[in-house]
Specification:
single chain; alpha+beta; 19-stranded mixed sheet
């Protein structure tokens, strides 16, 4: 019997070994297929997420999206303009498109101040129905504040830079003071019989002022906005896209030294001829045969072996310049970029319903220096909501993954939050929930998500019931998988973990901040396990822990097996996927930026063509010529509302420009008007008067480009044509018009049909 059991056990072991090998072969084949699918990406394990390049491409893409939105808005305005010119008010939607962009230069302190303002400004979701609660803005604000922590180092570096710049400025200004002293000492030495001054030291010019020095380390703030509106049949809507960026450029010692010295001259050095005054015989005085030698002090130069005068440079101001600029050594500051972008919309229906949405992000980029990784932190916020007329029903949500950062091939988020609400005001029923402290991780070592803790409030009439719960967490990766059980009001279900979890750990306690908000909520979770039931029943587990801790028993069995058979191959597969995803993200960001630039060009051409076609489509009856008395110009609606050609200034230098006026004569006056004279003026310089005679079938007018003298009846009553900037038109009582041509030299003739 024992032999049979031994044989059966060995047979089972061999069978399990064969199955295990087949599983391993299948997994290896799967991983090989994935590696082939991703191509070279699987071997490019060293490639990391290019966070800074992605941030720059994102900025470019949003700028292009703003331009695209503006171009599409212009196109829409132009397409609706012909219909709006002939249909009654209110029949055609009123559409506007407004676009603006501006850039201003900032110094370091201004950049820090204005960048800090962006970080403190949490995206406004007040236009989104049901998206905001009392706690919804806490997490994004804290996350945005934490994203600025690396700027503390930049602030300290900036203080050092300004200190060094001040020292350099003082040193440069002291050069001229030293030059004056050295020149004075040399002159005094010469007067006392010392070396002769051949060349005075020159003055240093081009020293930057304090304002100039502050401008050497600069940044900028660029703001771009587009807003489009539509109003029709009592409904209205506003959509916008905006981007605001504060950028502080990096600076190095080499750059600052070049900027400080760009306007400095090279002053002459102080050069002297070596020598001294010596008492020598300069002559003698003789009387009565007696000669008395005459001595005097004479300057005698020092010569070299060849008898040449020796010259010495005793002071060089340029050496002082080099010493002053050496104060700028040791500067290497990477700068920073703070960007806030958002797109949103707010819409109101004809019956009073409302809807809104928002997608926003605040981003901080600090380039790494001395081989360090770039720091890129992003805090996204999304919101959407709707409210039915008369407050019948309202629902909305707000979501923020919190502070999102990247490292290598991994993406992590902390301080995430989510909010959702719904309410039936007529019934006094509603609910709202806000989840805080959500976190996630995605990388080659796997994926994990922690739902954080949720504070919910259920409203039933005048009664509000608070609830605190957590949906737990989940993780899966090449090293293991597991979950932590959900909990409510401090009581939870057990979880399990096979192998090891990816980065991050799961907390099983309620944060004190949430506990304090709700009073006496316990700060620890009581996990309902079989062991607790055995203890409450005062029963000892007869299996030695198998029944009281079945999950632990299962983990102890599965974890070694997972680590041995799954982890090695799963690690390779996970890394190959991470490599492929990293390459796709890096290349995709630049491809999207390029595609958006192309789309901006295409939509710009479309908008220009549509505007031109729309202007040509406007009929003569739609254009009213302003009279000499009525000169008020109506304002256009929106930045890209079509220009009103009726009030456009005349440009007589462009013979191709056509202006079509509308001259409607009364039926009773048209027959008499055929013999009236009219004078027209093209607005050019000159003197003289014009006289034109209108017959039943033709209109001839001679224009002298000077002041206009009117002869005969008014041209409008006569049904004759007026010429403006190279065009003329005549219209009879039936409204028909014929546009003639004008000669820029001052004469104009045209034929027009007159009834």
């Amino acid at each position: 019997m024992l032999a049979d059991n031994r044989k059966q056990r060995r047979a089972r072991e061999r069978s399990e070994a064969r199955k295990s090998r087949r599983v391993q072969k299948a997994v290896v084949a799967l991983s090989a297929g994935i590696a082939v699918g991703v191509g070279a990406a699987g071997a490019a394990g060293a490639e990391t997420i290019g966070s800074q390049a992605i941030a720059e491409n994102s900025y470019t893409t949003v700028e292009n999206l703003i331009v695209i939105a503006d171009n599409l808005g212009r196109t829409q305005v132009a397409m609706l303009a012909p219909a709006a010119s002939v249909l009654p008010d209110g029949w055609v939607p009123v559409v506007t498109s407004e676009y603006s962009t501006s850039t201003e230069q900032l110094n370091f302190l201004e950049a820090l101040t204005q960048g800090g303002q962006l970080l403190l400004a949490v995206p406004d979701t007040s236009h989104v129905p049901g998206a905001s609660t009392a706690l919804s803005g806490i997490s994004p604000q804290v996350a945005q504040a934490l994203s600025a922590l690396p700027l503390a180092d930049t602030l300290g570096s900036g203080a050092t830079v300004y200190s060094k710049m001040g020292t350099a400025l003082v040193g440069l200004n002291l050069v001229n003071l030293d030059t004056g002293i050295q020149n004075g000492l040399a002159d005094a030495a010469e007067l006392l019989g010392g070396n002769k001054v051949d060349q005075d030291a020159g003055q240093l010019t081009g020293i930057p002022s304090i304002d100039d020095a502050l401008g050497f380390w600069t940044g900028s703030r660029t703001t771009s906005n587009w807003t489009g509106t539509v109003n029709w049949l009592g409904a209205s809507g506003t959509t916008w896209i905006s981007q605001d960026q504060v950028r502080m450029d990096g600076i190095t010692s080499e750059q600052l030294t070049a900027l400080f010295g760009q306007n400095l001259n090279q002053p002459d050095a102080l050069v002297v001829s070596n020598g001294a005054k010596e008492l020598v015989k300069v002559g003698e005085t003789c009387r009565w045969g007696i000669c008395i030698p005459k001595y005097d002090y004479v300057w005698i130069g020092e010569t070299d072996g060849d008898g040449n005068q020796v010259h010495t440079t005793i002071y060089d101001p340029n050496a002082g310049v080099a010493d002053a600029l050496s104060a700028l050594d040791g500067i290497d500051v990477g700068g920073f970029t703070i960007t806030q972008r958002e797109a949103g919309g707010s819409y109101t229906g004809a019956l009073g319903g409302q809807a809104g949405w928002l997608a926003a992000a605040t981003q901080v980029v600090v380039p790494g220096g001395s081989g360090a990784d770039d720091y890129v932190a992003t805090v996204p916020v999304y919101a959407a909501g709707i409210s039915l007329p008369d407050g019948l029903f309202t629902t909305g949500m707000q979501l923020s993954p919190g502070l999102v950062t990247t490292s290598g091939q991994s993406v992590d988020s902390v301080l995430g939050s989510s909010t959702s609400t719904w309410s039936l005001p007529a019934l006094g029923v509603g609910a709202q929930q806000t989840s805080l402290l959500e976190s996630s991780h995605l990388g080659p070592d796997g994926f994990s998500y922690n739902s954080g803790w949720t504070i919910a409030a259920i409203t039933l009439g005048d009664v509000t019931v608070p609830v605190v719960y957590s949906l737990g967490s989940v993780n899966v990766g090449p090293n293991g998988f597991g979950v932590s059980g959900p909990s409510i009001m401090g009581v939870g279900l057990p979880g399990f973990q096979v192998g090891s979890a990816p980065s991050g750990s799961v907390s099983s306690t309620i944060p004190d901040a949430i506990s304090q908000l709700l009073g006496d909520v316990p700060t620890s979770v009581i996990t309902l396990t079989p062991e607790m039931l055995f203890q409450l029943a005062q029963i000892e587990d007869p299996t030695g822990g198998v029944l009281s801790d079945p999950i632990g028993t299962l983990e102890s069995v599965l974890s070694p097996l997972f680590t041995k058979y799954v982890t090695p191959t799963a690690t390779e597969v996970s890394q190959a996927i991470a490599d492929a995803a990293t390459e796709a993200v890096n290349q995709g960001s630049s491809a999207i930026a390029a595609a958006s630039a192309k789309a901006a060009d295409v939509t710009s051409e479309l908008a220009d063509a549509t505007e031109s076609a729309s202007q040509l489509a406007v009929t003569p009856q739609d254009v009213v010529e302003p009279s000499a008395v009525e000169t008020a110009v109506p304002s256009s609606v929106g930045r890209h509302a079509l220009p009103d050609e009726r009030y456009a200034p005349t440009d007589t230098t462009d013979a191709s420009t056509t202006y079509v006026g509308r001259h409607r004569a009364d039926d009773g006056e048209s027959s008499d008007a055929a013999n009236d004279d009219a004078t027209t003026d093209v607005g050019s310089e000159g003197t003289g008067s014009d006289a034109g005679t209108v017959t039943a079938g033709s209109d001839t007018g001679n224009s002298d480009s000077g002041s206009a003298d009117t002869a005969g009846a008014d041209a409008a009553d006569a049904g004759s044509s007026s010429s403006d900037t190279g065009s003329s038109s005549a219209a009879g009582p039936d409204g028909s018009a014929d546009v003639g041509t004008s000669d820029s030299s001052g004469s104009d003739s045209g034929d027009g049909a007159a009834a």
